[in-house]
Amino acid sequence: MAIRIGILGYGNLGKGVECAVKHNPDMELAAVFTRRDPASLTILTEGAKVYRAADAPEKKDEIDVMILCGGSATDLPWQTPDMARYFNVVDSFDTHARISEHFEAVDKAARESGHVGIISVGWDPGMFSLNRLYANGILPGGKDYTFWGKGVSQGHSDAIRRIDGVKDARQYTIPVDRALEAVRSGENPELTVREKHTRECFVVAEDGADLDKIRETIVNMPNYFSDYDTTVHFISEEELQRDHAGIPHGGFVICSGKTGWRDENKHVIEYSLKLDSNPEFTSSVLVAYARAAYRLNREGQSGCKSVFDIAPAYLSAMDGAELRKRLL
Amino acid sequence: MAIRIGILGYGNLGKGVECAVKHNPDMELAAVFTRRDPASLTILTEGAKVYRAADAPEKKDEIDVMILCGGSATDLPWQTPDMARYFNVVDSFDTHARISEHFEAVDKAARESGHVGIISVGWDPGMFSLNRLYANGILPGGKDYTFWGKGVSQGHSDAIRRIDGVKDARQYTIPVDRALEAVRSGENPELTVREKHTRECFVVAEDGADLDKIRETIVNMPNYFSDYDTTVHFISEEELQRDHAGIPHGGFVICSGKTGWRDENKHVIEYSLKLDSNPEFTSSVLVAYARAAYRLNREGQSGCKSVFDIAPAYLSAMDGAELRKRLL
């Protein structure tokens, strides 16, 4: 019988999960839970239900794993522990400074209810974290560098949109080639924020807006832009729609370390992603970990886990013998 | 108390393990076991013992994990199951066609004695296998490509050395840039053996040897060279020592797959290694998995496992909370 997936929150991430479930024959989308009016929501999957988010608890026997597709700022901190009372849960919580706290809250709820919760699943945190951990385990004393991009940063795009006179905007984070090359060479350079990434902004201004003022406001914005070399392009609404509609992203984790009795040999490990759609890739990782959550729970486990705690075999629909034969 | 490591076989791999243990403060090298005369062996680690391989069983209380550093062709198929009767074991068994059989043999011995055995640890099989598995779990229906090199192939170098008139040789396996680029683009090309790798040979001939004949013998050698574009350079013994003394290697695992309701978005995942010393990197992976074997066994587990079955957190000396804080 297929693993019955529930989706809580039907934005870009939720839609991505719906698509990812379609790519996994051992799974089926049972229901989407929304805070909007269910009657107003059209989903793609035939046969899947649409329920009110508030009704989730009473649907607990219809869902094997609930995938939480809300935001890390205000949704997941309470939603994931709350849903862990009724379901196995997977989320993509990415507020780094609050991961410990979130882990504890989900762990408590999941242990009490006998479910498995897997948090901070995606690519960073997620696949990038795994690569930092593997490299660090193999080459202790080595150094790891993470670069993001080229890709759209939703947070930075939103920050620009909040500026007076801005109608719409898209911000790309771009890793600096020179920094990438220095890291790849195994030199272990010390890099400032400015040396690692640049930021490129495509802005649609309102008619008659003061472009110079918008540009100044962007490049001097603390936290978001002031520590970076930032380029601002003003374009038309049509150009934005035509050339910047996608949500690509990606990045690099590069680790280097030394071996040998006198550290005489150098090694460089590099992991990179080039993603046409950030939310769809993140969703695909969520769905693979939903399989793991289901299986671990069937084995009698409960409590909160991160990608660090999950043996890779649990992600695949293949069994151990087949995996060893085909992929080892 | 430190994890006490034993090394069986003190060649390049065994020496690499010795160096890797030095880089891991939670471990210590307890003893090296050798089939040579122990008195003839000088090791680097102060305080570590050197014993006869045949005496290993009676030293079982001195060693927490035995790392097997013999070859896959004739040593590991009997050594790993044999040692699993007395120790937790880790090996780098890499004869792909015989992994299932080897897994079963180690599993039986390890279960009977209550130990953990981890087989086929290194980078391929090993880290490359993990990357194939993660990518396949996330993007089912995607395609994965593995390229090796640029690096020294010991097997191909040996095959050349066996030719009449050849004094010494070093063979490099080199991935073809055009093929790498085609795969990175997400085109999912069908590639022949010849299109993926070239082979470059540096050969020291004996005085008066027929160079043309040696070259012909190499490039037409079935299995090893005949399916590849192979270049042969004749060099002096001094040049070989000066320019080709190292054992570098590396390679690429590139996976691409699609997401979206109509497969409209493409994703490329790439993992690569650039290694100054193939045996020292492999050894470093073995040592990280020795930590996992020790911990799993302390938790009461037994039997054979591959890298697919080990949660990544077991590889690191850090505990769960520290890992989440520093690497997630």
Describe the structure.
The structure is a homodimer of 328-residue chains. Chain A is of the alpha/beta class. The first copy, chain A, contains eleven helices and 14 strands. The first copy, chain A, has helices at 12-22, 76-83, 99-113, 127-138, 154-161, 177-184, 193-196, 211-219, 237-243, 278-298, 320-326; strands at 3-8, 27-34, 49-52, 65-68, 88-90, 116-118, 143-148, 151-152, 166-175, 197-205, 229-234, 249-259, 265-275, 303-305. In chain A, the strands form three sheets. Chain A has a seven-stranded parallel sheet, sandwiched between helices. A four-stranded mixed sheet of chain A has the order 8-9-10-11. The first copy, chain A, has a three-stranded antiparallel sheet with strand order 7-12-13, sandwiched between helices. In chain A, helix 1 crosses helix 10 (278-298) and helix 2 (76-83) runs parallel beside helix 3. The longest helix of chain A has 21 residues, at 278-298. The radius of gyration of chain A is 22 Å and the shape is globular. At the A-B interface, helix 1, helix 3, helix 4, strand 13 and helix 10 of A face helix 1, helix 3, helix 4, strand 13 and helix 10 of B. Strand 13 (265-275) of chain A pairs antiparallel with strand 13 of chain B.
